[in-house]
Amino acid sequence: MNRHWQKIQAIAQLKLHMIIHNLSISFIPAFSMLMVYLLRLIIHDQSTAADAASAMGGAYLLSFGLLFNTVMGGIMMCSGPLAEEKEKHTLRVLMTASVSGLDFFIGSALPVLVIIEVVNVLMIPIAGVAWSVIPWGSFLLISTICALISMLLGYMTGILSKNQTQAGIVSMPLLFIFTMLPFFRVLNHTLEMLANLTYSGILTRLVDQTLDQGYHWDFQDIAVLLIWLVIGVGLFLYAYRRNGLDSD
Amino acid sequence: MTTTAIQVQHLAKHFKTTSALRDLSFTVHQGEIFGFLGPSGAGKTTTLKILTGQLAPSAGTATVLGHDVTQLTPAIYEHVGIVTHNSGLYDRLSVTANLRFFAKLLGVATTKVTPLLARVGLSEQQQQLAGKLSQGQRQRLILARAVLHAPAVLFLDEPTSGLDPSTALAIHHLIRDLRDQGTAIFLTTHNMTEATKLCDQVALLNDGQIVELGTPQALRLKYNRHQNYRVLFQGETAAQTLSGPAGQTIIAREITAGHIVTIHSGEPTLEDVFLEVTGRNLE
């Protein structure tokens, strides 16, 4: 077996184990699903009738779940473990034990991406939306791109932080902007416009339109996703080149 | 023929206002334990960081296994083992899982893990979480991890610091075995007894400069200017120190008469040598 792949596999297995056994991180996807389920029960109780109401509830709940899982999960499942490796001095051990930066990032990213995508798919029925109405190609592509952008921002945060506490503090504004802005898009037109300029806003647009008249790609969605992907890669590379994986 | 494992020439490291290392030059061969001795702050860890590619030198060159230390790649690190004070462990993994992970990373058969843990005295802690180990047990696990892949070059920063004597002895055996298998070992320590017992060559480091370099025996003999002997005679409870021609005459006479219970040559220890060369203690 190729040595790189062997190392990536070993790191991916380790990261999966560490995510599962770190409650403050594994809590995020679990919490997203639980919250959506509980909110669904509440909304179901309060909506007296109407398919429209349940459709609105479905879109709201699915957006809520996808935002929490993709944005919060993506950022925190990457920044926290990376900062922990730095704090516990295991990252330096890996770097001097024949692991390249690329092996490390691919191995670390794989389990996070798989967790986010699996939970996003499971979120659909939990939010009370039928799998049959989902445009799978667009859904998987957009949610994967959004997850990757969140992960890049998470890694950037992890690189710039010395420990887990600092990573949590630095992540906070990103979490607030990319989770809350699309979430409050319904409050006024300005917020909706701003939300539509964020990658997480495109995720909620996908859900809104899917459950309204059906989702169709438009130039703005593609441009916003690409711009944020470029920004994510750029910020990550900037942090990596400035600090390395583990500056001391 | 001996193969060069580490080659250092005119190495220097300057920080903003201070010179941490000045003009270091030495060579470590395969199958050799090289002791780098000096008090705290002498530059031992800085040298180790440079040689392991974690810190860039300001001047001079250093190679490990023929590769410039500023250009070490993952492929070269596969032949290197490192134990430092801040080498971390995965605290939420068991002792065995920690080693199995590194075995997978380094392409080593995982069947080597259990015998190695026995070798460093961690058999009973195999299933224990690394985060629950005592400091001494952690140090042994870090050492086991560093030697798991039988590296060609092993860097050890105070490897027995804080360990109980029996564990330190077991570690010494392990280090000697690795040396006998051809591993070049770069060992930093301020424990002179350990250095004398283990090292084939030592460099005495003071304020970032090597002040003496050679075998422990050669250095001790070089500074053995006042040849003396500690002698315990029959019927006495304390040994006497005898020196010079007069002392040698007494010793010769008493040995012939069978009156000597114990006799030890009194050449200086490495600590004495360091004190004489630098005017300061190693601690």
Radius of gyration of chain A: 19 Å
Summarize the biggest pleated sheet of chain B.
6 strands, mixed
Give the assembly state of these chains: heterodimer
N-to-C SSE series of chain A? HHHHHHHHHH
Instruction: Quote the distance from N terminus to C terminus of chain B.
Output: 37 Å
| Biggest sheet descriptor of chain A | none
The outline of chain A comes out as globular
Number of E-state strands of chain B? 13
**What does the average pLDDT of chain A come to?**
89
Question: Count of helices of chain B?
Answer: 10
Mean pLDDT of chain B: 91
Summarize the amount of helix of chain B as a percent range: 25-40%
Main-sheet strand order of chain B equals 6-7-8-3-9-10
Radius of gyration of chain B: 22 Å
- Whole-number tally of structural domains of chain A: 1
Shape estimate of chain B:
globular
By DSSP, the count of extended strands of chain A is 0
- Count up the helices of chain A: 10
Protein name (chain A): ABC-2 type transporter
Transmembrane segments (chain A): 20-39, 59-83, 104-127, 133-155, 167-187, 222-240
GO molecular function (chain A): ABC-type transporter activity
Pfam families (chain A): ABC2_membrane (PF01061)
